[in-house]
Amino acid sequence: MTTMDDHYSPAYYYYVDPASLYQPQQPNPLDDLISVYGLQNISQQVARTNPDGTKAVKLRKSYKNQINDLSGKFSVIPTRENGKGGDIAPILFQNNPDMVPQVHKTADMTPEQWHQLMCDRDAGLFQPQNMDWDVCQAVLSQFERSHPAEFQANGFQADDLAFDLDGSGNTLKPRKRKNKSSGSSMATPNSDLQEDMKRRRLE
Amino acid sequence: MTTAVEMLQNNGLASPERHNSTVGNGLKSSEKLGNNIHTGTNKDMDNDSQHYGNSSVSKAPELPHVEVNQLPIALLIRNLTVFSVKELVQFLKTSVHEGQDTSVKKTSFLQLVIFLRNQFLKIYVLVKWCRTIKNNNFNTMIDLLNWFRGSNMAVNNCIWALKASLAGMLNAKLPNPDLVTALEVLSLGRPNLPTHSFSLSGEEESEKGPKGFSVPSKLILKKLRDMNIIMSVKVSLMELPDQFKQYTVRDGRLVIHVENEFEVQLSTTDQRSPLFFVDLKLLFNELLPLNKYKLEKVINEVLFKSPRPLFALYRLLHNYVLSVQMYILHAELLDLESNSKYSGGNLKHHYDSRKNGITLKYWLHSRLKGKCNAIIGVDKESGNITLKWNIEDLPEGNPLVPVRYSNVLNNLGNILDEIMFNHSQIIKSQLLSTEVLHEEEDISDALLFHVPSTPASVIPIQIKINPISGIFYAKNPSGLLTYYINQINKTTTTDDFVKVLNRLKLDKTISILKNMFEKVGWVCNNVIKLNAPISIESTGTQKMLSRDLYIRLQNWPANWYLILSVISSNASCALEKRIGKITASNGNWELKYLDTKNVATLKLESMTYQKVIHLKKTSLHSIIDHMIIDSLNGLHMRNKICAGDSLDAVPEYIFQDNSSNQTSVLSIELESFLGGPNALNNLLEKTMFLRIDYQENKIKLFGKFKHNSKMICNQYNEALMQFIDKDSLSFFMTETFIDLNNIVQHFNPFKQKLMQIVTLTDVIERLHNFYSENFSIVALKPNEISFKYLKHSNDEYDCLIHIQTTDHSVENLDVKLSPSNPQYIIQPFIESSKQDYKFVFNYLQFTSGFFGVVESILSTAGRNSSQASNGYSTLALQLHNLSEYELIYYNAEVNSKITLMIELRNVFLNGSQRLRYYVHFADDEHISSKSPAYPLVHRVRNTVFMVDNSSLVNSDTISSLGSPKKPKIASAIRLTDGICCDATDIELVIKEINSILRVNSI
After folding, report:
1. Do B624 and B640 belong together in one domain?
2. Are residues B361 and B463 in the same domain?
3. CA distances (Å), A16 to each of A13, A21, B157, B873, B921, in order?
4. Which residues in chain B have Cβ-Cβ distances shorter than 8 Å to A151?
5. What segments bear the compositional bias annotation Polar residues (chain A) (predicted)?
6. Residue in B closest to A89 by C-alpha
C-alpha cells in the first residue's frame, strides 16, 4: 500500500521537485548591466544625447567625414544604394578556404620558419603560374590615351574615379563646416541612410 | 557587419601591405588604438575586458561569449587583398585577346579598379570608426545584447510552456475546499454546528443520560402557550386570503386548512419575527411523498420576503397543489393508456409540465381521429383543474351533453367513459338524421342499414360503434361488408359515410342483378369500363350513385350490349335500360352507339325473373333495330326507329302480312338511303320503311310512288318489287337474311333495285313522251325494256333497252334495235357514238318516218328488180353519218347514177331553231345534159324543188284541186336546189321524188 501511495501521491504537495534547487539568474537583469560590465564609456559615446540633454554625435561621424582626409575628390559617395558600393560581406568572409592560400604548421618548425611561411603565404599570387606579367603588359599596352567622353558611351562616369583633377580638394569640406555650425551632421543628403546603417552596425 | 567592427578591434597578424596605402593606414591606426596586440582568442578578450573595467566589473558574472562570424582584421584585409589580386588577374586574362573594343575594356577595367578601391575604402572607414571607441570593450556590448536576447527567449518559452500546461490541466479540477469546516474539524475534531448537543424534548433526556442538555417540560409548555398567544395575535394582525380563513392555533403553531388542497403548519419565534414553515400535508392524497426540505426552503423564503406573506404562500401552495394534481392525472392517464381498456393506442395524451396542461386524444384509430380530443387545465375563473371536451359536431344548444368536467381528480376514467359514450351517441344521431340508417328498437346502441337481398326485399345490417376505440363494426360480417366497414372507418364526414353505405348498397344491388341475369343465361361483361357513367341523371346530383352493367346474350351481335344503369340514391334504387354498342379501341372502351331515345326506367323492386327472361326475347329486336340504325348511321342514312307512339304513324299496309310480333320497323329517308341521286324524289315518297321480321328472317323495304306513273303498276317485274295490291301505289321488296351482323349487306340489293326502278321509270316516262302514238312496251324485265314504236311494225319488238347497273347507280343503257327494224342501219352509230339515250330516242323518233319509207321503197325495188333484172336501175341507201344519208339510183344499162342527198339540218324558222330534212342532189355529181339521167333530174327539180308558180298564184285552188301527182306537202319549203321539210312530211317528199326517178329510170 505504501508503494501505491508513493506512486500515486508524491510526498510534496505542489508538483515541484523539492530536491532540485533553482538559483536566481546571473547576471540579474534588474541590475544596471551597462555599469556592471563597465560599458558606461562606450554607451556614452553612442548615446543620442549627452547627460545635459544636448545632442551627442561623437561616434556618429558620417562616412563622408571619415574619408574626408583622403586625397581623392568624392563628389559621389559610393554606397550600396547608388550601386557603386558593392557588397563587401561575401568577399570578407571567404567561406571557401581554397580561395585564399593556406599554410600549415608542422611540429618541427621553428618560430622563425613559421613566421617566414606566414609572411610568404600570399607571395604565390604574383608568381607566374598565377600572374602572367606579360599578359598584364600586353593588356595595359592596349590601353591608349583616353578622354572622358570616351567612357560616356559605356556608362562610365569619370567622377567615380574621385581624382582631384582641378586640385580643389574635397568639395564636401565647406558643407561639413556648415553642418557643424548648425550643430548637426545629419543634414547631408544621404546621411539618414548612413546613420541607419551605422546604427545597425553598432547593434 | 557587427562582427566586422569587432574584427577591427582585434588586430591579427600583420598582413602584407602591398597595394593599398589606405589599408595600411587603417592598420596603423588600429595598432594605436589597441595598446596590446592580440592574437585573437575570445577568452583573452574577456580577460582583457576585465582588465580594462573598474573593480565592480570584475565581480560581474560571466556572459556567454559570441564567437560566430568574428574574424581577425588581418584575415579580413588579407581576404580582400587576395580577392582583388585574383579579380585583376582574371580581368587581364580575359582581356588579353585582340578584337575587343579597347574603350569597353578600359571602362570595365576602370570599373573594377573603382569597385576594389571602394571596398578598401569601407575597411578604412570601419577602422577609423573603431578608433573612436575607448577601452576596446565593444564585444562585451555584443555579448550583453546576445544575453538579453537569450533571456528574453527563455521567458517567452516559459510563458508558452505555462499556457500549454494550462490547456493540459483543463480536465483536472478539484472542488472548492470548505476551508472553514476543515479548520473547524482540524481544531475541534468536529464541525462546529450551532445545534450541537442541543435537545428540546424531555424524552431524549433519559437516553442521553445526565450528560444531555435538557429543558424542563414546564418551560416547554409555557413556551408553547406563549407561542399560541403570539401566533394568535400575529395572525389576527395579518391579512389573510379567503382560503385561509379556516385556521387554528395549537401547539405553538398556526395550522391552516384549505379544503381538498392542503394543510400547512407555520410558526414563529416571537412577535416580530416572520413566520416560518413547520409542516405541510396534501389533503387530496396524503400518501404522496413530499420533499419537505425543499418546500421549507421555498416557503420560508416566500414568508420572509413577501410583503403579504400569507397571500404569497397561498398562491405558491395552490399552484403547487395544481401541479401535483396535474401530474397525478398524467400518471393516471399513463396507467389508463397502458393497462386499462383503452390500451392499444386508443387513448393518448401529452403532458406539458411547463404550461401545466394535458391535451388528450381518444379514438385514435377511428375515422374521426384528430377530431376527438379534450384538454385538462386550470380554469382561470375558478382556479381549479377542469377537463374540457372539444367536440365540434355538438348539436347547438344541446345542454344535455356536458362539455366541462371540474371534478377530474380520481374521476378521470368515468369522465372518459362518459365522453366517449356521448360522442358515440352524437355520431349516431347524426347518422340517423341522414335517414339512411335506422335505429334498432331492441338494441339501443346499434344502427341498422338496409341492404337489398333480392330486388324486392331488404335485410338489415347492424352497425355498432365501439365506444372505446370509436370504430364501427358489424356482427359476423361478410367479406364485402368487412371491406365496406373498413371504408366507413376511413371516412371523415357524415356525407362520406353515407356515400360508402350507398356504395355498399349499390354493390349489393349489382351483384343481385348480375346473379339474376346470369342465372337466366345472360352474360355479364365485367371488363368494360367507360370513362363516364351512361346515365345522365346520376352525374348531375352528388347524392346519386350509379354503376353500369353490360350484359348480353351469347347469340347477340358482337359488341352490342344491354346496358343497365343502376342508379341508387339514399332511399330508392332505379334501373335504366339502354341498348348500346361498346368497342375497344386503343386500349380504351368506347361507347360507339347509345340508344338515347328509348330509355326504359324501372324500379329495382319491379325486377323479377320473368322480366329478365322476357327481356331476353324483346331486347334482341331492339338490338337489331339499333344495329341497323347504327349501320345506317354509319352509312350516313337518316333514319328513325318506329316504336311506341310513332308506330301508329306507320302506314297500315306495312303490317298487313305480319304474322308475328317479332318485327321492328324503321323509317329511312329516301335520299340519304340512296346516297346522292335525287331522281326518285319525284317518283317516290320521301320516307321508306324497313320492316325486319325476325321469325322469318326477312327484311322488307316498303316504298310508295308519289303518283300513278303511267303504265307502271302492272309492268314492273315481280322479281323487282311487289305491290301491296293492284291499285295501290305502295310496294315492297324482300330479302332474306341469315346473319344479323351483316344485315347491312342486304341493303345493297334494295339499293340496286331502287336504282333500277329509278332508271326504268325514268326511261319509260321518256319513252312515253317520245312515242306517244305507236308506243307500247312489249316486255319488262329488271334489266330490260322491250318496246314498239314504229307505225307498221310486225316485229316482236322494235327496240330493246338493256340497263346496265353497278351496285350504286345505273351505268349505261344499251339501246338495241331489232334486226328487222328499218333503222337497224344506224345501230353501229348508236353504239359507237355513245350518245345520250335521250338523244337516241329523239333521233330514232325523228328518223323513223324516213327509214320507214326508204324501207318500203327498197322492198318494192327489191321485188321489182327480181322481175326486171334486165337493166332496171338499182337503188341503195348509204349512211354517211347520223345526219347525212345518200339514196343512190343506178342504172346499170346506161351506166347512169343519180345521187339524192338527205341531210338533217338545224334551221331557223320563224325565229326558232328546228330540225329539218334537206333533200337535194349531190353537188359533186355533174350530170350532163346528154345523160339519160338528166331529164329525170331536171324533172325532179322542176316538179319538186321548184316553187310552183301556180301554187304561188293561187295556192288555195291548187291545194283544193289536190293534184294526184303532186300531193300536198304542208311543211315543204322548195329551195330550187332542193327541198326542206319536217319529219312528218319526209315520207311524202321521198315518195314523190322516188316516183319520178323510179318511173323514168325504168
Report:
1. no
2. no
3. 8, 10, 18, 180, 171
4. 103, 106-107, 110
5. 181-192
6. B1
Q: Is the pLDDT of residue B9 over 50?
A: no
More confident residue, B522 or B760: B522
Mean pLDDT of A18-31: 81
Residue with cell string 401545466: B356
| 8 Å CB contact of A67 and B69 | no
What distances in angstroms separate CA B42 from CA B131, B453, B997, one per listed residue?
Answer: 20, 129, 185
The pLDDT score that the predictor gives to residue B152 is 93
CB atoms within 10 A of CB B879: 13
Edge-to-edge, what's the strand order for the sheet holding B247-250?
B247-250, B253-258, B262-267, B276-282
Residues of A in contact with B85 (CB under 8 A): 125-126, 131
Q: Is it the case that residue B182 has pLDDT exceeding 50? A: yes
Q: How far is A2 from chain B (nearest CA, A)?
A: 24
Residue A116 in domain: no
Q: What pLDDT score does B23 carry?
A: 35
Residue B55, SS3 per DSSP: helix
pLDDT exceeds 50 at position A201: no
Range of the domain at A20: 15-74
Shared-domain flag, residues B621 and B640: no
| Number of domains, chain A | 1
A window 44-103, beta carbon within 8 A of B: 45, 58-59, 61, 63, 66-67, 70, 78, 84-86, 88-89, 91-94, 99-101
CA distance B95 to B112: 13
Give yes or no for a contact between B625 and B741, defined as CB atoms under 8 angstroms apart.
no
- Would A152 be classed as within a structural domain? no
Structure-model confidence comparison of residues B848 and B766, the more confident one: B848
* B709 and B814 together in one domain: no
Q: What is the pLDDT of residue B157?
A: 95
Residue to mutate among B48, B114, B115, B142, with most A CBs inside 10 A, is B114
Residues of B in contact with A42 (CB under 8 A): 133-135, 137-138, 141
In a domain, B705, yes or no: yes
- Is B883 in the same domain as B976? yes
The percent of residues above 90 in pLDDT, for chain B, comes to 1
Q: A107-111, B29-33, B494-498: which has the minimum mean pLDDT?
A: B29-33
The answer to whether residue A22 is domain-embedded is yes
ipTM of the complex as predicted: 0.71
For the cut 50, the answer to whether the pLDDT of residue B383 exceeds it is: yes
Among B836, B858, B880, give the residue marking a domain's end: B858
Judge contact between B237 and B290, C-beta under 8 A.
Answer: no
Q: Based on the fold, state whether residues B781 and B911 are members of the same structural domain.
A: no
Note the pLDDT of residue B161.
92
User: Is the model's pTM score more than 0.80?
Assistant: no
Contact (CB<8Å) B103/A153: yes
Task: Return residues 115-174 of A near B (CB < 8 Å).
Answer: 118-119, 122, 125-126, 130-132, 135-136, 138-139, 142-144, 146, 150-151, 153-156, 160-161
B181 phi, psi to nearest 5 deg: -65, -40
Contact B125 A66 (CB under 8 A): yes
Q: Which of A45, A67, A101 sits opposite B133 (nearest CB)?
A: A45
Question: Cβ contact (<8 Å) for B83 and A45?
Answer: no
The residue assigned the cell 403570539 is: B230
Contact B549, B567 (CB under 8 A): no
User: Is residue A84, in this structure, part of any structural domain at all?
Assistant: no
Contact A130 B78 (CB under 8 A): no
pLDDT value, residue B727: 59
Over residues A46-74, the pLDDT tens digits come to 777 877 878 766 555 577 777 877 777 77
Residues constituting chain A:
203
Distance from CA of A1 to the nearest CA of B (A): 24
The predicted-structure confidence for B899-911, as pLDDT tens digits, reads as follows 888 888 887 777 7
CA-wise closest residue to A160 among A79, A87, A91, A92: A79
Q: Are residues B979 and B875 in the same domain?
A: yes
User: What's the structural domain count of chain B?
Assistant: 6
Please check the confidence at residue B115 and state whether its pLDDT lies above 50.
Answer: yes
Query: How far A129 CA sits from the closest chain B CA (Å)?
Result: 11
Is B157 among the domain residues? Answer: no
Of B628, B661, B679, the domain-final residue: B628
- Sheet hosting strand B784-788, strand order edge to edge: B776-780, B784-788, B799-805, B810-817
Same domain, residue pair B930 and B972: yes
Determine which of A81, A92, A136, A202 to mutate to test the interface with B (most B C-beta atoms within 10 Å): A92
Domain boundaries, position B644? 636-739
